[in-house]
Amino acid sequence: MTSDNTLTAPLKLRGRSAFHQFAVLSVRWGRVPAGTILFFLAWYLLSLTLPDSRLVSPLRVVDEMLYNFVLSPHLQVFGLGRIGYAGLLIYSVKNVLLGLAVGAAIGLLLGLTSARFRPLRYLVDPITLVLGTVPVLVAAPLFLLWFGVVPYTQVLLVGLYSAVMMTIFSQRAVDNIDPVYELAAATRGANWSTRLRLILLPAVVPEVIGGLRVTLASAWGIETFTEILGAPSGIGQAIKTYTNVNNVAGMLACVGLVAIVAITMDFLLQVTARRISRWAH
User: 73-280 — its CATH code?
Assistant: First the structure.
């Protein structure tokens, strides 16, 4: 005869498990606002001890963002045209997305194919090694010299480094897959394209998404730095202009907007990745 304790044990365990998951999620998501509050509090306190030529309060930075978001008279005076921070961000976002899309697609294709096709890997690895070790501080001036101060210069630079990074991430993702699955499919008559489509691609999705997040963060750094060196538009040009005239509030407003947009894009990428690789969680 079954006792009441035996019947209620699974319910207790289930309740305990649900409570544990809720507690873990609460702690995990609670760190974000807590860390953000501490950051802005430290920023505010530090701004009280430093002159405005070194650091301004977060409230002044927010006012600068709102006042110049649609149309900025400061930027017009400095020769950037009748534009605001929003227009400059649109220029930067387009370059980042275009360069990342093209570079990531090329890198993913090269990484997946070279990981299983040795002759191609012997050709790809030295190229990625050389390009990956060249600092963007060196490559960016060369690209500006070769292609000029035009929008596609930033796109080419972002695309190049995105392709190199995604090639490496894709190769490592394939190398981490147990070859027994591909061997089992091969013994059942699956050709290489079938194994690539049905085994390799689904298996590398979680790790490739992680690499894509790192590549996205790097793409924003490359785009902003290249715009600071020379570009027809972009938020990097505003940062450069404000730095030259020692406008700390404007410079921090531009940096803050870049951070907000980059974090938002990373969040959207995470949400999309969870939907695509729901089976992995």
Answer: 1.10.3720.10
Judge residue 213's burial from the number of C-beta atoms within 10 Å of its C-beta, 0-12 exposed, 13-18 middle, 19 or more buried: middle
User: What letter would DSSP give residue 279?
Assistant: G
- The full length of the chain comes to 281
Q: What is the pLDDT of residue 186?
A: 77
User: Where do you find CATH 1.10.3720.10 in the chain?
Assistant: 73-280
Single-letter amino acid code for the residue at 123:
L
pLDDT average, residue stretch 135-157 = 86
| Whole-number CA gyration radius for the chain | 25
* Residues 6, 90: Cα–Cα separation, whole Å: 62
Q: Give residue 14's pLDDT.
A: 45
pLDDT of residue 277: 67
Per-residue DSSP letters for 134-203? S-HHHHHHHHHHHH-SSHHHHHHHHHHHHHHHHHHHHHHHHHTS-THHHHHHHHTT--HHHHIIIIIHHH
How many whole angstroms separate alpha carbon 155 and alpha carbon 96?
A: 7
The answer to whether the CB of 194 falls within 8 A of the CB of 185 is yes
CB-based burial, 60-88: b 16+ in 10 Å, e otherwise: bbeebbebbeeebebbeebebeebbbebb
The identity of residue 256, as a single letter, is G
End-to-end CA distance of the chain: 39
